[in-house]
Design a protein that fits this description.
Strand order of the largest sheet: 1-2-4-3-5-6-7-8
Number of helices: 13
Strand content: 5-15%
Largest sheet: 8 strands, mixed
Helix content: 40-55%
CATH topology: Rossmann fold
Shape: globular
């Protein structure tokens, strides 16, 4: 384990040793109760043919299914995508298997999760939707486009965890097994993670959110508040740990997907300094999907600090263009049917 994560863990454990002193325990319990209540806001559990699935939705217009990353849930997805609801999009943010109120089935693979995404669309009466996969939500978003092409009008991958050939160099070193073990220990306990936020927030931002904290400190107050909100929303980690463990295993066992078979218009986004090293895999993924566009940044980390408006504008532009193409195709088909 590197020196910085070790020091962070020691600091967190030192605070844990003081849990019974100076009201620390009562403050933690109060903050955890607030976090649990916040995680329920806007949430609904939908019965589907694939089992119960938690989600929340907002906005009207073209449907966009948002698939969150590690440590997230419907709340994390909606926190990122809510501005899109003011630009003619109906955002449906889902909780993946093992997160919050979506149970983890025996088969929690990206393929099974992709089928569950479509089951949710069926239950909501949505024939076709754009799909956005963020970070560890990337594999199931990709599988949805591969396995159910007729249901996906467009595909967006934001800092996706994705496979790449060994010959493709990483822009960042791979996450070591030691660091994975440290992260899972921190994320396996509500108290340890809460303590980390209190005494070593910059280290949490760097190692858990894979974003340089110095960039966060130098950005706008709005962006700093967004990063703090995302960090705080990981609580309660006890309601997300099953999904987190699956994501960690998946990151170590990614396989090549049939990217060339994807027909949906696709946008892939990443930053070179992403601490999870998604840039090279994202660029490769975009190169293999026919017609895909790659939007890359030199800085911004895994949270794409400072680039939110640019990314959302690119997403809206692509989704509106794909919607127009779909409408034109349907109009032409209708005219042909009338002629026949």
């Amino acid at each position: 384990m590197s020196r910085q994560p070790l020091l962070t863990l020691l600091a967190v454990m030192a605070l844990a040793a003081l849990a019974g002193a100076a009201g620390v325990k009562s403050i933690f319990e109060r903050d955890l109760a607030v976090a649990a209540e916040r995680a329920l806001q806007g949430s609904a559990v939908v019965d589907t043919q694939c089992g119960p699935i938690e989600m929340q939705q907002a906005g009207e217009g073209q449907a966009l299914l948002v698939v969150h990353g590690s440590g997230g849930g419907h709340d994390q997805g909606m926190a990122w995508a809510r501005p899109l609801t003011h630009q003619g999009l109906r955002v449906i943010a889902v909780s993946r298997f093992g997160y919050l109120r979506t149970p983890r089935p025996a088969d929690a693979s990206p393929e099974a999760q992709a089928d569950a995404h479509v089951c949710l669309l069926d239950a909501l009466g949505i024939e076709q939707a754009a799909v956005m996969g963020v970070s560890a939500g990337g594999p199931s978003a990709l599988q949805t486009a591969i396995r159910h092409p007729q249901r996906v009008s467009a595909l967006v991958l934001v800092v996706p965890i994705a496979w790449k050939p060994p010959a493709v160099a990483d822009s960042a070193p791979p996450v070591s097994d030691d660091k994975d073990a440290w992260l899972l220990r921190l994320l396996g306990s509500d108290f340890l993670f809460w303590a980390g936020l209190q005494v070593a927030r910059d280290s949490v931002v760097r190692h858990v959110l894979a974003t340089p904290p110095e960039q966060v400190a130098a950005t706008s107050a709005i962006e700093r508040a967004r990063v703090d909100d995302l960090a705080d929303r990981i609580l309660p980690v006890s309601l997300r740990v099953a999904g987190l463990r699956d994501d960690t295993r998946l990151g170590k066992s990614l396989e090549a997907y049939a990217l060339e078979s994807i027909k949906a218009p696709t946008l892939v986004v990443s930053a070179r300094d992403d601490g999870f090293g998604t840039y090279a895999a994202a660029e490769y993924t975009a190169s293999r999907i026919p017609g895909a566009k790659f939007l890359g940044f030199d800085e911004g980390g895994h949270l794409l600090v400072g680039h939110g408006p640019t990314v959302r504008d690119a997403v809206v532009k692509m989704l509106l263009a794909s919607s127009q193409r779909v409408q034109q195709s349907r109009h032409m088909l209708h005219r042909q049917q009338r002629v026949l």
